[in-house]
Amino acid sequence: GTTDPAAPADNNSGTSNGGSTDNKGTATDKKATDGAPVGSNIAKIVAYYNAAANATKANKGKMTLDIVQGSTTKITDTSFPDAAVKIANGMLPNDYGTKKHLTVTNGNAVGTKTTVKGETKNENKSINKILPIDNNSKMSTLTAAGVQSATCTKVSGGYKVVIKLKPETVTSLSAKPKNHYSCMDILNITEDSVKPFTIENCNIKYTGGTLTATVNDKNMLTHFDVVNPMHISGNLKWGIVKGSAVIDASWKQTVTFKY
After folding, report:
1. What predicted TM-score, i.e. pTM, was given to this entire model?
2. Cys bridge to 256: 66, 98, 136, 137, which one at CB 3.0-4.6 A?
3. What do you get for the CA distance between the two ends of the chain, in Å?
4. How far apart are CA 108 and CA 60, in angstroms?
């Protein structure tokens, strides 16, 4: 992905916020978050969040991640009979409540994943596959143009950022909405997710995901939460039978970081 040209310099170094430094180079007069853009200036808040999120994902020190995530999907309107809808709904991804406990060292995450069915498996992946943007060293390349509203407020332990994205529409389940995909994961669903049914002629509206994060005094994330709802309309096909369908879906992810 591309980097946000508005992203500020790393506030962890030297005296970038005007504070003095001790003989170890540590800022003493001002904390990194003294420069937090409190208020509702979208461009400044997006730049502030991007800098903290990308520094967190690039962190080479040790940290632990506790994650709760997953998707909810349901056919809410269709011309198919109820019995067929029940079968199709059973095929759709509904795994919200999946939990991960991971220790990250030098960018590699090792730990456990527990499914909503209570099955626990070992996990060993690059952090680039754990946090958005998927398979990318950046956690966010969001730009102000994709944001509907943003706020930054002082809270215990740092600053809370809330970013609401503008709605986006794509016409393929494999298409990635530019703004949403630049800072959060999206639902993993394909045209074949409801076999023996297939989904055709899709129109997927991302209704405006919300990202909430807490940035600590070292300009690192301690909390990250995403709710990314979407409204899918199209046709369900089963053999020679075809009917309209509406699917309401959402991807949710909450991550707690400890250093």
Report:
1. 0.84
2. 66
3. 27
4. 9
Specify whether the CB–CB gap between 213 and 199 falls below 8 A. Answer: no
Q: Per residue in 198-241, pLDDT tens? A: 888 899 999 999 999 999 999 999 999 999 999 999 988 888 88
Beta bridge partners of 154: 159
Exposed / middle / buried, residue 41 (Cβ in 10 Å: 0-12, 13-18, 19+): middle
Six-digit token string for 243:
């009917």
- Please state the φ and ψ torsions of residue 207, each to the nearest 5 degrees: -80, -5
CA separation, residue 110 to residues 34, 69, 172, 224 (Å): 34, 17, 34, 19
Torsion angle defined by CA atoms of residues 55, 59, 62 and 67, in that order, rounded to the nearest 10 degrees: 60
Q: Regarding beta strands 168-170 and 158-165, do their DSSP bridges make them parallel or antiparallel, or are they unpaired?
A: unpaired
Q: What is the DSSP letter of 93?
A: -
> Taking the CA of residue 106 as centre, how many other CA atoms within 13 Å lie in the half-sphere pointing to its CB?
0
Q: If you ran DSSP here, which 8-state letter would residue 92 be given?
A: S
100 close to 123: Cβ distance less than 8 angstroms: yes
